[in-house]
Every structure is written in structure tokens, then in C-alpha cells.
Amino acid sequence: MRLDKLLEREKIGSKKAVKRLLLRKAVTVDGKPAESEGMNVDPVIQEIKIFEKTLKTTGHSYFMMNKPKGAVTAVKDAKHTTVLDLLADRDKNEKLYPVGRLDRDTEGLLLITDNGPLGYQLIHPSKKVVKRYEVIVNEPLSIEDCRQFAEGITFTGGQQCQPAELHILSSSSKQSLAYLDIQEGKFHQVKKMFLSVGKKVIYLKRLSMGSLFLDSKLKPGEYRRLEPEELKLLMLYFKK
Fold first, then answer.
1. What's the CATH fold of domain 62-126+211-239?
2. Which pLDDT value is given to residue 139?
3. What predicted TM-score, i.e. pTM, was given to this entire model?
């Protein structure tokens, strides 16, 4: 939310009054004078003070969901249930959207928010936000597979993936279990990466995104609001 809009909403004063406060450096965000009236802020994550008095108000909405199979990661869909359809009416607002993308048959961590700037930061390649997936494939995994992932998988057609870390948890002739850490989010990327080394993904679940880890208590389709400490850690991506 823009700082001036927030202060107006909290009845701090008119646009002119807000500008005067900023000129006097009376408004601080996380201990530093506010840069401009148009800067994006969130009082849930950031400490906003006016003449050293903390502004106590609600800001954006942040939900952690354990996305279930079958739901699509979209705001609207004519054929399928979307992740926003799973929210209770009391939690919905027209600006909520899912951050990043999970395939329809993929489960796991999904952040839903109406804070556009934060969502943009979390998926922007320059921020190098690591996503961890739990993967089951239908073939044995080997040290050679780990090496290929570490060097960067190349898809048919020449598209190059950034280096990724493959951690093999178990491997057999019928199926293997592993963690995969990647920093990108190309279309069907995880599935394509494993197909490139001759394996088919038969189960996929996202466990984490940067500092945010899926709450093990959440069943598929369940969600909760983020805790203040989780929000503070996410806010660090604004400062990188």
C-alpha cells in the first residue's frame, strides 16, 4: 500500500498534511525517514512511526496454503476450482492472488497475498529465492543425476536452467525420493528437469519458498494467516 494512502486511511491528515510530515522527516519506516509519499509500505511487516509514535493498524493479507491436487493456481478459472475458491468468504478480497505457480497436480506451499510488490520480489530472478520441492520419480536416482542438476539442466530446444541442488533421500529400481532446490519457476520446470535425465515425476510437493516453510499441521486445502515473524523474514527480500 502507498504510504500516503495508508496515512490518509488512518486519518493522519490530508495529502498536504502528509507531505508536510514527510518534509519534516516526521514519518519513519523501520527507523529511516520515509523516502516519498508513494513508497510501498506494510504496517504488518514494517514499523511505521509518526513523531516516534508507532502506527498500529492492519495492512495487507498474507495466507499460507497447503495447495491440494486438483486446484489451479489462478485467480479465476472457468473449469476448475482455484486456490482462491478455497478461501473462506471472510478472508477474500478482490486483490488477493497466488504468488508463483504450482501445477494442478502439485501440492504444497503457496503464498496468497494482496501485497503485489512483495509477491513480485519473491518470484523475481534477481532475488534468487530458493524453492524446495519433495519429489518422487519412477526410476533410480544417482550421483550422476545430482551432477547434471548442479551443472544446470538443458531442455530440448536449448533452454538452460540455472544450477540446482538435488538431494537423494532414497533410491530403488521402482521409485526414488528426493529434495530439489531451485531458484527459478519456468513452466513445468521440475517435471521437465527430471524428464531430461530420463525420470518421470509421479509426486511433487513444494515445501518452502525462501524463508517461508510449509506448516506441517496444514492438511491439503487448509490455510492460515502468516505469523508476524514469518512476515518479517519475508520482508528481508525487499532489502536485498
1. Alpha-Beta Plaits (3.30.70)
2. 96
3. 0.80
